[in-house]
Amino acid sequence: MASTERTTGLTDLARAGFSELAQADAGLTELAETLGRARADIGAPASRAADPDAALHALLRVARRDSEALRGAAADERRWSDLWLLLGASRGFGEFYARHPGEIAALDGGAVRLPTDAELTDTLLNAVGAEAGFADDGSEQAWVRLRVAYRTQVARIALFDLSHTAPESVLEAVAAALADAAGAALEASLCIARTRISTGGPAGQFSREQVDATQLAIIGMGKCGARELNYVSDVDVIFVAGTDDESLVSESRAVDIGTRLAVQTMRGISGVEVEPPLWEVDPNLRPEGKQGALVRTLDSHVAYYERWAKSWEFQALLKARPIAGNPSLGEAYVAEVQPRVWASAARENFVDSVQRMRERVTYHIPPDEVSQQIKLGPGGIRDVEFTVQLLQLVHGLSDEAIRQRGTLPAIDALVAEGYIGRADAAAFARDYRLLRLMEHRLQLRRLSRTHLMPTDPDELRVLARATGLADTGAALLDQWETIKREVRDIHVRLFYRPLLSAVAALPAEERSLSEDQAHDRLAAIGFSDPPGALRHIRALTTGLSRKATIQRHLMPVMIRWFADGVDPDYGLISFRRLSERLGDTPWFLRMLRDSTGAAERLTRVLSGSRYVGELVEWIPESAAWLDDEDHLRPRSGLALQEEARAIQTRHSSIEDAARAVRALRRREVLRTAMGGILGILSIAEIADALTTITEVTIQATLRAVRREVVPPEDDALDFSVIAMGRFGGAELGFGSDADVLYVYRANGVEESRAAQLANALVAGLRQHSEDQRLPLDLDADLRPEGRNGPIVRSLDAYAAYYRRWSLSWEAQALLRSRGVAGSVKLIGAFTDLADSVRYPVSADAAGLREIKRIKARVENERLPQGVDPARHLKLGPGSLSDVEWLVQLLQLQHAHAIPELRTTSTLRALDALATHSLLPSSAVERLRQAWVLASRLRSANTLLSGQTSDVLPADRRKLDGLARLLEYPPHSASQVEEDYLGATRRARRVFEKYFYG
User: Fold this and answer.
1) What span, in angstroms and rounded, lies between the C-alpha atoms of 438 and 433?
2) Between 20 and 30 A from 59 (CA), which of 165, 856, 975, 994?
3) How does residue 552 score in pLDDT terms, banded at 50, 70 and 90?
4) Which residues on neighbouring strands pair with residue 951, listed in sequence order?
5) What distance in Å separates the CA atoms of residue 729 and residue 710, rounded to the nearest whole number?
6) Under 8 Å CB-to-CB from 826, ≥6 apart: which residues?
7) Residue of 640, 605, 642 whose CA lies nearest to 623
8) What pLDDT is attached to residue 202?
9) CA distances from residue 996 to 851, 870, 889 in whole angstroms, order as listed
10) Is the pLDDT of residue 703 over 60?
C-alpha cells in the first residue's frame, strides 16, 4: 500500500513539472517539516513554476538558512504561490534570496502592479541614505545596500511580468520599469560617488562644495534610453559635465570632478563586491569611443558631433535620454544632439553605411552561435531594431511624428504615418514582443546577460513553460523558427528598400517647399508646366486618407525620378491617372513604398513612354508587374495559346471572344513595352514577343470567326493566314503593321461557296481584330497584283499566278512568307509553293535587274516629301530597306544551293552570308549594326510618342528621349544622332558595293 501511495505521489510530482522526482519528494517533505505546514499545501503551487525543481531547491536553501523568512510567505497562499512562480523562472533570484532571505517579504503585492519611476528612485535613494545628492555613507557597504535594494525591486518587476497569462502584452511596461530601475540605480550610485570623492570620503579629493557645484548628467543610450531595457543588459551611457558656479568650480575642474564621479558611479554598479555586480555600465558610445575622454562638457560634445561623428554615432543617439544626474544639463544635451540625429540621414551614403553595419554585426557572430542567436542573428531582435531605426532616421528628417525613442512606439508611428504597411507593422511588433519575451526569460533564468537559445532539452522545456508560448521545447523551437523567417522577410524588404536611399539623397531644398519655391524647383529640375505639376501633386497628396499620407511620403522622391525621365510632366499626369484608377487599392501604394524598385521603374516607364502611359491607364493592374522582373518578361507562346483557347471555350459570342482576345493582346504588348523600356528585354526578345502576341491574336480571332462563319457542312474548307514582311521574319516592332496573305483550299466544298466563305473569314478577321486603343493593321498589300488583286485566293490560284504572272518583287516578298494561322496542311502546301518561287535553281538575271530598278525608284518616289532621306529609318540610305533588300537579293541568288539562307529572318540570313563568305564579316557587321539600331529607334519612336513614325526626329528633346529609351545617358541627343547617321553611312557603302556593284 505504501508503495502504491509513493508511486501515485511521484506521478503527481511529474504532472506538476518536476524532473528529479525522488529528490523532489524528499525535498517537499523536508520543507513542510521545516515550515510546519502540510506537505500538500507546500507543493500545491509547484505547477506554476517553469522549473519546479529549481524553485524547490531555492526554497530549501532559504529554509535551511532562515526558515522564519519563509514562514510568513508560506502562511499566505497567494504570496507562497508567487514565490514558487518567481523562483521557478529564476535560479538567479533563488541565489539572491539565499543570500538575503529577509528581502522575500518585499515581494508582497508585486504581482499586482509595477513600481513607478518615482517609487524606484525613492526606494534606492533611501537605501543609500541619500540627501541633497549625497549618500550618508561612501563605503563599499553602501554599494551593497544599493545592489540589494535594486534586486529587490527587479524581483517585484519580474513577479508582475511572470504573473501575466500573456506576458508579451506587458512587455513595454516591464521593459520601461527595468529602465527606470536602472536609472534609479545610477542615481543612487552617483550619490554614493559624491560622498566617496568628497573630503572625508574613502576617495576624497575635493571639497563637498566643489562636488556639489559640479553638474554631471548621465545620458542613457540604447535600450535604457528608449525605456525598453532587458533584465540583465549592458547599460550604455554618456557622461556630460558642467558647473553651477564658475567662481567655485571652473569648467575644466568640473570635467575633472565629473570624471571621478563617473568612475565611482560605474564602480558602484559594476565593480566586484560582496553582492555581485548588477550589470555593466558601458560608456563606449561616447565621442571617440574608448579612446575619447570619459566625461566632456556639452560644448565639447556638440563640437565633436558637428565635425567628426560617424553615421552610426547618430543612430546610437536616436534613443538618448537623461536618466540620472543633473536633469537640466541632460535635457540641454538632448536638445543639442537631437536635431543633428535627424539631419544625419542626409549624409552621403548614410543608408548604405547603416546597412553595412547591420551586415557586420551578423558577420561577427561566432559561426556556432548563429543558429542560436535570438538578438543578433538573422530574423532576430536586431533585424527589427535596425529596420525601424533606419526608417525613422531617413523619414524623420522631415516628419517629427516618427521621432520616437522606443521600438514599439516607433513601429506604431511609422504605420500611422504610412511608412510601413499595417500587416508588416503588426507582424513586426508581434514578433518583436515574442523575441523580447524569450530574451527576458533566458536572462531571468540565471540573472545573466545572454541571447542564446538553449540547446539542452531540459532548458528548452523550462523556457517554453516560462514564456507560456508552447508546452514543449520542440514546439517553442518551431514557433521561434517561424518568427525568425517572418522577421527576416520583412527586414529584407524594408531595410533594403531602394526608396530609403532615394529619400536620404534628396536635396534639403526638395523636402519641404513653399508654393513659390516648389514652382521654381519644378521648373529647375525639368518640368515644362510647373503650375500643372503642382495641381497634380496637390490632387495626389491632399487629404487625411492613408492613401494621401503615403503619397505625401512618396512624392518628393518620385518627383525627382520623374524629373530624371524623358517627359516629367507626362509621367506625373499618367501617375495621377493611374492612382485615380486604382483608387484605394491597397497593394498599389504598398508596392511603391515597400518594393525593391517598383516606384522608380514606374516613373521610368511613365515619363519615358506615352505609348505605355496610355495602355497603363486602361490596364492599371499592370503596375503590379513592376515589383517582379519575371513579370516583365514575355509569357511563352504556349501559355498565350492556352489562354486564348480558354477564351474561346468561355465565350460563346464572337463579340465577347474578340473583346477578350484584344484585352489579352493589349496586356501582353504592354508587358513587352515595359520590359523593353526598363532594359530587361533585347531588341530580338521584343521582336519575338510582339510576333508571338500577334500570331496568337490572329489565331484566336480566326478560330472565333470560323466558328461563326463556316457551317458544319462546309467544315472541310481549309483557310490559312500567311505572315509576310517583318511579321514573317518575326521582326515586329512597336507600331509595326502585320503584313499577311490569305489562302484557302475548297477540299470538296463548291468553289464559289468556298470563295464566299473565305472572303467572309477575311472580313470577319479584319473586323474583329480592329482595336481603337492598340491598332492592329492586317495589311494584305503584298498579295499578288497588290491592292488591285483579290484579297484572298485559293492555293491553286496562287500557283497559277506565280507560274504565269509572278514578278520579281513578288518572289522577293515571298522570301519572308511564313504560315501563322489556320490549316497546318494548307500552310505546308503554300510553303512548298513559295519555296519553288523564292528559291529558284538559278536566279533570273532580268528579274534581279528589275529588283535593283525598283529599289532605286522606291528611294526616289516613296520617301515622304520634305523628309531628310538620311533620317528616314525605313527607306533612308543605309537603313532597314537597304539591309533587307541586299539580303533578299543574295537569298534569291544563293538560297537554293545554301539551305542556311532559307530563312525569313534578316539577322539569321546575315549570319549565313558571312558563314558562306558571300559577304565579308566586316560588311555583315556594319549591316547588322545599322539594321539593329534603326529597328530600335523605330520602336523607340512609337514608345516615346505613342504614334508610329519612321523618321528620326530633329527635335533635341525628342532625340534625347529616344536616346534614354535606348539606354544612353541623359543629354545624349547628339550622340544617338551621330551613332545612327554614322552606322547608316557605313551600311550604305556596303549596300552600294554589293547591291549595285
Assistant:
1) 9
2) 165
3) confident
4) 872
5) 30
6) 718, 719, 720, 743, 744, 745, 795, 819
7) 605
8) 86
9) 10, 19, 11
10) yes
Rounded distance, CA 866 to CA 509, Å?
A: 47
Task: Go through 556-568 and write b for each residue having 16 or more CB atoms within 10 A of its CB, e for each that does not.
Answer: bbbbbbbbbbbbb
- Report yes or no: 741 and 783 within 8 Å, Cβ to Cβ: yes
pLDDT classification of 863: cutoffs 50, 70, 90 = confident
DSSP per-residue codes, 526-560: T-S-HHHHHHHHHHHH-SSSHHHHHHHHHHHHHHH
**Dihedral angle, C-alpha 172, 173, 178, 184, nearest 10 °:** 130
User: Which residue from 843, 872, 866 is spatially nearest to 930, judged by alpha carbons?
Assistant: 872
Q: Using CA atoms, how far apart are residues 309 and 336, in angstroms rounded to an integer? A: 14
Determine contact, residues 128/142, Cβ cutoff 8 Å: yes
Nearest to 87 by CA among 41, 40, 51, 34: 51
The whole-angstrom separation of Cα 73 and Cα 633 is 73
Burial of 819 (C-beta count, 10 Å sphere; 0-12/13-18/19+): buried
Hey, how many other C-beta atoms are within 10 angstroms of the C-beta on 861?
8
Under the banding of pLDDT at 50, 70 and 90, the label for residue 623 is very high
Q: How far apart are CA 557 and CA 507, in angstroms?
A: 10
Q: Which amino acid is at 88?
A: G
Asked if 403 and 342 count as a contact pair (C-beta separation under 8 A), the reply is yes
Q: Which of 144-148, 227-231, 777-781 has the lowest mean pLDDT?
A: 777-781
- The DSSP secondary-structure symbol of 453 reads P
What is the C-alpha to C-alpha distance for residues 698 and 822, in angstroms, rounded to an integer?
9
**Cβ atoms of 178 and 257 closer than 8 Å:** no
Judge contact between 892 and 811, C-beta under 8 A: yes
Compute the distance between CA of residue 683 and CA of residue 408 in angstroms, rounded to an integer: 50
What's the rounded Cα separation, in Å, for the pair 498 and 355? 12
Vertex 704: Cα angle to 701 and 709 (nearest 5): 115
Measured CA to CA, the distance from residue 53 to residue 21 in angstroms comes to 9
> Has residue 254 got a pLDDT over 70?
yes
Give yes or no for residue 511 having a pLDDT over 70: no
Strands of 197-293 (E only): list them. Answer: 214-220, 235-243, 281-282
Does the pLDDT of residue 499 top 60, yes or no?
no
Picking from 806, 784, 786, the residue whose alpha carbon sits closest to that of residue 794 is 784
Compute the average pLDDT of residues 611-621. Answer: 93
Element (DSSP H or E) covering residue 794? strand 792-794
Average pLDDT, the chain: 91
Residue 310's nearest CA partner among 341, 282, 336 is: 341
The rounded distance, in Å, linking the Cα atoms of 491 and 383 is 6
The confidence score (pLDDT) of residue 1 equals 40
Q: What whole-number distance in Å separates Cα of residue 313 and Cα of residue 519?
A: 37
Tens digits of residue pLDDT in 431-462: 999 999 999 999 999 999 999 999 999 999 99
Residue 865 — pLDDT band, cuts 50, 70, 90? confident
The answer on pLDDT for 743 being more than 50 is yes
Query: pLDDT digit string (tens) for 907-916?
Result: 999 999 999 9
Give dist(CA 203, CA 648) in Å, integer. Answer: 95
**Strand, coil or helix: what is 962?**
helix
CB 333 within 8 A of CB 240: yes
Percent of the chain with pLDDT over 70: 97
Burial, 385: exposed, middle or buried (Cβ in 10 Å; 0-12, 13-18, 19+)? Answer: buried
Q: Which of 574, 558, 568 is nearest to 510 (CA)?
A: 558
| pLDDT for 284 beyond 50 | yes
11: pLDDT strictly greater than 50: yes
